Amino acid sequence: MKRIFLTAAMAAFFMGSLWAQEPAGAPEGGISAELLEEISKGYEHDADDRAIRNALAGTSIATLAINAENAAMIDTHFSDRVRTKGITDQKSSGRCWLFTGLNVLRAKMIDKYELPGMEFSQNYIFFYDQLEKANLFLQGVIDTKDLPFEDRKVDWLFSNPLSDGGQFTGVSNLIVKYGVVPAEAMPETFQSDNTSQMATLLKLKLREDGLVLRDAAASGASAKKLQKMKVEQLSEIYRMLALCLGEPVKEFEWTRCDKDNNIVSRKTYTPKSFYDEFIGEDLENNYVMIMNDPCREYGKVYEIDYDRHVYDGHNWLYINLPVERIKEMAIASIKDNTAMYFSCDVGKFYDRKKGVLDIANFDYESLMGVTFGMDKKQRVQTHASGSSHAMTLIAVDVCPESGKPVKWMVENSWGPASGYKGCLIMTDEWFNEYMFRLVVEKKYVPADVLEMLNQEPELLPAWDPMFAPEQ
Predict the structure, then answer these.
(1) Does 350 lie in the same domain as 256?
(2) Which of the following is catalytic: 96, 244, 344, 423?
(3) pLDDT tens, position by position, 263-278
(4) What is the CATH number of the domain that holds 213?
(5) What is the DSSP letter of 430?
(6) 339 within some domain
(7) The whole model's pTM is what?
């Protein structure tokens, strides 16, 4: 068989002939043969391009973009650090918000009672989180029954019937309503550690139930009838959750030990009595969520419609502030040995081997020969960045000469082998660019910022990309 070889010039001529056959009147804006020839000059076929092309053919971009000049491990000394014990692991689930919220509380409990260590049951709260979100969706379908299916809110509801992600408002609402239990009282299951299959089935069932409710409403079903139908549907959801996660514990015995493992007390508790005895604070009113959202006006309060975990709970409410003001509160809290709920865009410039978040970790511009020049506001506006993960802020290193922070550390929930001993260290420059949310106790919030809570919040839609659940 005779083989035919085409040179690059012959191939270009052949393809140009095909493009020449485009129908008359074709719209401008497509890639013509002439345009392709022009833009293909971006790849120069020189020695540099060939070397990079060869390297990229068999190596990850992140590996090749590692900045060798920044390869040394960052200093791990911190001037101020919250006393914590133990690293948790959310496994293959999106429950970072829940682990983070509970880790903030357990740090307080361990320190207050000088415990050798302890962990709250994430599975216990997660059961009620999923049940409450199912009710939030079904009641939302009932509330919007008169809107067309194409309405943005109806579409958002059916697009997001339930998830395992969330944020701090869910932590506070759920704990106040259902209490907490130690991890051993309701341990993790395979499904709580690996939530995707369970979530797929729950969402499928809820979407079906939502359609049933809308059809019944369209057929003239009364409000009482719709509520009865919802209860029957929630009963099925409860059973699915109980099969996957176990039924929530209602009473348990717990032995409290001191730091030397000597028994201090052994009592029987309910989830509510356990919370009242060992935590006992007003989570819904004692904390303030602060955000650094450069797309919106600073000094204002914003509320996210339908962005809550509990139908009869609270929407997500936050004060928008410049990052420097947020740092002041964070430092005050850390210096007082109080951890905080913190969220950020964790995937950006993360060196997994070192456990360090630093914008100097990778030099993508030199590797690709282009610039990436967007600022924080532009990245958010174009969906290039946003809060994706919650962790517990526990440390800061303040420069003694300038009084300014140099780096920060968060306790993560990816297990003790991940990052730097289960934690992540971030430079202050990275903090500026990729930190978004912080939940602070009111006693660390200046009076002028607390005064902002008296404003009438500006209501924002649930589908705003800035407010996706943290996972």
Answers:
(1) no
(2) 96
(3) 999 999 999 999 999 9
(4) 3.90.70.10
(5) H
(6) yes
(7) 0.92
